[in-house]
Amino acid sequence: MRPLTADDLNPAILKVQYAVRGELAIRAEELREKLQADKHDLPFKKVISSNIGNPQQKGLDQPYLTFTRQVAALMEYPPLAEHVKGKWPQDVLDRAKELQEEIGSIGAYSHSKGVPLIRKHVAKFIEERDGYPSDPEDIFLTAGASAGVSLLLNVLITPNVTGILIPIPQYPLYTATLAQYSGVALPYHLSEPDGWSTSLHEIEAALAKAEKDGVKPRALVVINPGNPTGAILDKSTMKELVQLCEKHSLVLLADEVYQANLHRPHTHPFHSFKQVVRELGSPIPLFSFHSISKGVKGECGRRGGYFECTNIAEDVRALLYKMASVTLCPPLSGQIGVDSLVRPPRPNDPSYALWRKETDTIHDALRQRTQLMAQRLNSLPGVSCVDSPGALYLYPKLELPDKAVEEARRQGKSPDTLYALQLLEETGICVVPGSGFGQKDGEHHYRLTCLCPGVEEYVSALENFHKGFLAKYGAL
Q1: Is the pTM higher than 0.90?
Q2: Distances from the Cα of 248 to the Cα of 27, 148, 217, 296, angstroms
């Protein structure tokens, strides 16, 4: 019998690249295993996973929210309620009872779009956020926002014909999924000198190139707040983007999973595209994504999220439901997490004071780390870094010595990959090279999270490595 080989597989998957879990992450795991040995020669004591926004990962240890976990525990094992009466807040017990009466056992499949009651709660959350109605029938609960993005790109793409406009730099989910479904990436560059702002001129240029290349643009992806940049769109730019979608008959895919990660909310507030579309009375088709993995919840492993359909025809929505049904339903534990996301404790609820303390503590830590890290990175020779007003990351730019660029070329790697690999080998800090997110030719970046505790020690290690790297390649 002839063995199965890579040549027998779908050729599209050979083009899939996902830098967040790529070469650096694989090497980090190898080093983490090496650290477990009684004797090792590594110059660090731990691997720091600064490559992925995974807040509760071991070593990052962002605390979970008590309310979320207590409700989840009661849903997993309902008899626990008898043991915690009088010990846990009554609103936790009441919430779990309400969900149990609607769902029954979370070991059973739910509706393919998600539990109807939870979708009603999502719709109410959106109404309160935006000031405009939301229909539960327009809500699809998903296994994290990524599953929703994958579903939508799958149904939008005609292989090798359909173009999807994506920001550069972008979250690698988009290029990976486009490769999987044989879509055509239509990149538009964000403006780093302007705080990673979105340029309509760049998008128009990408559309003109697509037309010249015989590609049919179908959708515009906007990540707000940005990943990896942390940039937050102002409302006037959002209105221009909506009008651009009208002009070119584009579907708007609004990735809004970092909407709660605002470091300077008074000067850089979040506005949803749903709100802007309704204010303008625009007819553009809009899909908006949210997740329990980011914000202050950080419940990545539960795989919970949703997308809302705005201005989507009923026959299209029916086809989306058909495709969602193929996977039966999103995980119930994730759906329970979504309910806690959109229905946190309210003032005067027994759980509110602790919930407020926990969320404020997480927001404050992220804000302080982001500001400190940006300040210290900007003080280094050959480094410039936008002080991100949102999300969980910084994306510093590197001016690398010619000798380092030549060495990277000799090794067959991008220069920022060489930099990131040496950073990992010397400090145990794992970051993602900017080449994995996309950047202009001749530029070099890396993305690191602002989730790491012990920020002074962490940043000092980054500083010492950078100065040593420049000296090694003759720039100091």
Answers
A1: yes
A2: 44, 24, 8, 37
